[in-house]
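Worked example 3. Consider a protein that binds guanosine-5'-diphosphate.
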Amino acid sequence: MEKDAKIFVAGHNGMVGSALVRKLKQEGYTNLILKSSKALDLVDQEKVNTFFKTEKPDYVFLAAAKVGGIEANNTYRGQFLYENLMIQNNVIHQSYVHQVKKLLFLASSCIYPKFAEQPIKEASLLTGELEPTNEPYAIAKIAGLKLCENYNRQYGCNFITVMPTNLYGPNDNYDLNTAHVLPALLRKFHDAKRKQLEYVEVWGTGTPKREFLHVDDLANACIHLMQSYNSYAPINVGTGKDITIRELANLIKDIVAFKGDIKWNSDRPDGTPRKLLDVALIHQLGWKYSIDLEDGIKKLYRDKF
Ligand code: GDP
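Given these inputs, the predicted complex is written out as structure tokens:
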């Protein structure tokens, strides 16, 4: 990627898109095209066609998506499927039509089978049933990565797919109905401390394990892959380490310095028991995460609350 190349970061106001913009600017990329969802509705085919015709970007980072935690995925099932399919169809197809030099599509670790062998290798894709709570989102993301793969195979496009693990960092969503677990717990423990509550309710049994990657590390990985990886085979991005939700809850409780108890609500779903990514492939390509989970959460807590 040349420093003055026209780079479209789709979804630049989201957690991933904004981290990509920060990193691209730091590295001296000067010609970023950024459109808020108000200025350009990526679900709208006509508008996306016109945008690509007018702007003709050289490179595309496709970080725009409808995302959310376990409750949002399970509640807005139709919207998660429809909006994600539309956004990615529009952007990937127009990137082909207007000969974008390279596109990076962000998928997710939740597209792997619910009971995939751990750590999950890229080859586990489509080898078993999906986790029901986020099946619509996963199906959309699988369609997106297959679109990238098959545009490479049929048309010779250079469209790559990245599978990030669970992410956290600046510009996350803290709405308790739709948030992922890490920001939700920061919000819950912080509010409980402020209001001097006796306990915090945490969902599920606490036994599922999750891997957490700081979004600034993901942004580094994406730019690294944009410069060095040219295969349609999707590639995992994670830390290679996971912790139980119980350990995460205790860690956040300590960071926030909340003195009360934790109450587990097992009426809420646990979701996938474990989704630790095998990161051997990206390590071979010379990238490794750098932000330790505890340090990352401490900094986030200081900056946000
Ligand atoms: P997932 O990784 O797709 O399952 O999405 P989440 O980040 O929403 O949830 C991860 C795990 O954290 C699940 O086992 C949830 O039951 C658990 N969890 C515990 N408390 C919360 C909470 O307050 N919000 C969310 N979203 N998840 C929670």
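Take a moment to read the result before moving on. The CA atoms of residues 132 and 271 lie 8 Å apart. Residues 7-171+212-239+276-292 form a domain with the Rossmann fold fold (CATH 3.40.50.720).
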